[in-house]
Write a structure and sequence with these properties.
Shape: globular
Largest sheet: 7 strands, antiparallel
Helix content: 10-25%
Order of helices and strands: HEHHEEEEEEEEEEEEHHE
Strand content: 35-45%
Structural class: alpha+beta
Length: 237
């Protein structure tokens, strides 16, 4: 009888664990869903003043969340190419939870273009690389938010930021692209190297992808620098 009870407990645990893992889901809302959910009243409550770029609906063991990416629209022109490009001077993201008709803000992210010698002209969310996954298999989603800027040479001399939210912590990687070797520099928060290896590997894979896509120029030897847990690396002699 004792063995039977142990087996029941074991299979109950497996079923519970499986059901817990099944709850981790992320989806991108359609334009119709965004319009229906994000009324003027809700936007005012969340202090969303910029047009909505994208909304992610995320569910995990702690509940259901919405992550809203917004970008200001400040200029639609390009005097150099005579083509119409949209420029964004500010971005804002909010992650909130709706529970029993109550809205609880979890975190908020704000940034803007800078005049750092490169005269940045636009900033936007790089949705190709943004992900909401459970990287450490604890039943909770670990958001990776990535955005960047453009300047005179498009993204070649802009900035890139990786923002990771995990267990109430915010971990960042800040990178400055550059057409010249000495202009490139990457700064990694020390806490990044304490993250689960699966999450660290995901970030490094995104860095490789950005390089292949022509959106990033990381300092030569950056893979070795990160393997050695270096927090600031560049190509200056």
């Amino acid at each position: 009888l004792r063995h039977v009870i142990q087996l029941i407990i074991y299979f109950t645990f497996l079923t519970h664990a499986f059901s817990q893992r099944q709850k981790v889901v992320s989806e991108i809302l359609s334009s119709a869903q965004v319009t229906k959910i994000f009324t003027d009243t809700l936007c005012r409550k969340l202090n969303l003043n910029f047009p909505i770029r994208r909304v992610y609906k995320n569910s995990d063991n702690s509940g259901q969340y919405y992550c809203v990416l917004t970008e200001s629209i400040d200029l639609i022109s390009n005097p150099t190419t005579q083509e119409k490009d949209t420029f964004h001077y500010r971005i804002k993201a909010v992650n909130f939870k709706i529970e029993r008709n109550n809205v609880t803000m979890i975190w908020e992210l704000n940034d803007k273009i800078e005049s750092n010698g490169n005269e940045e002209n636009s900033i936007w969310f790089w949705t190709r690389y943004i992900e909401f996954k459970d990287y450490d298999n604890d039943g909770l989603i670990d958001p990776i938010i990535i955005y960047g800027t453009s300047a005179m040479n498009n993204t070649d001399d802009g900035r890139i930021k990786f923002i990771i939210y995990i267990k109430g912590r915010k971990i960042a990687i800040r990178h400055q692209n550059g057409t010249l070797d000495f202009a490139r520099e990457t700064q990694v928060d020390k806490g990044f190297y304490d993250l689960p290896q699966t999450l660290q590997s995901a970030i490094k894979q995104k860095m490789e992808m950005m390089t292949a896509d022509g959106n990033a120029i990381f300092p030569r030897g950056w893979q070795t620098a990160m393997k050695n847990r270096i927090t600031i690396f560049n190509e200056r002699k």
